[in-house]
Amino acid sequence: MSAMERAGSEDMGDDVERKGLGTPATRADIIEKLVKDGFVKREKKQMIPTEDGMKLITVLPDVVKSPKLTADWENALTLVSKGELERDSFMEDIVAMVKELIHTYHEVSSEQKEMFAQEQEVLGKCPNCGGQVAKGKYGAYCVNKCGMNVSRIMGVSLSDEQVRNVLAGKKILLKGLTSKMGKKYDAYIIPLGIEDYSYTKDGEAKFGKQFKFSLDFPKHKKK
User: How much is the average pLDDT of 62-87?
Assistant: First the structure.
């Protein structure tokens, strides 16, 4: 936080309202966000950039990551507050800079794309299109986006291991299913292929593929 307070301050006039990066009230939150988003990690009393953090700094334009930009803005805002610079003129400069950045950096090179590409954990082969079924942030999905629902059965989210087994044609046990009468029960799901299904979302009909299966119920031991 001390480094953030000093960053770029040598380029700021003596009469600017605030110096450095952020404000005393926001600097801690900025650091926490960097940690939460995986760009920085804590090691004892040090803040260490992660691999993703170093990649991000590599691809960002120099003008965006320089404290000099903050210094220029603070100096300009001081002139605005004194009436020595028109507010509209200041905002026009901001808009012009953003447009120039978008024009210059609107495309990402193949090398930069590969830099941020994440290895996907493959769980099996899609029974609909033959593509890979990968582990995603919100559940398993077909990388070809063919419309095959591989992450849920009977409204229940499947674990990675359950997805693997169903894709391999093996039966799985689903616990805590709810009957039409509202009663809870467990059942084995036995894959039998795939079938079409449809539903309506926001008044629009949606279509896709899902697992076709039969149910087998666990035998309860007599007391």
Answer: 88
Same domain for 152 and 95: no
CA distance 184 to 133: 30
Quick one: which H or E segment has residue 100?
Answer: helix 87-104
pLDDT, the chain, mean: 88
Q: Would residue 124 count as lying in a domain?
A: no
pTM: 0.49
Q: Which helix (H) or strand (E) holds 55?
A: helix 51-59
CA 69 – CA 62 distance, rounded (Å): 10
Integer Cα distance of 116 and 131 in angstroms: 22
| Assigned token pair, 75 | 């100096």
Say how many C-beta atoms besides its own lie within 10 A of residue 165's C-beta.
Answer: 19
d(CA 19, CA 185): 63
In-domain check, residue 125: no
How many domains are contained in the chain? 2
Tokens of 144: 């070809």
- Residue span of the structural domain in which 187 resides: 146-216
Question: Up-side HSE of residue 31: CA atoms within 13 Å toward CB?
Answer: 16
The angle that helices 67-82 and 87-104 make with each other, rounded to 10 degrees, is: 160
Decide: 12 and 75 in contact? Cβ < 8 Å: yes
What are 177-186's pLDDT values in tens digits? 888 888 899 9
List the CATH number of the domain containing 74: 1.10.460.10
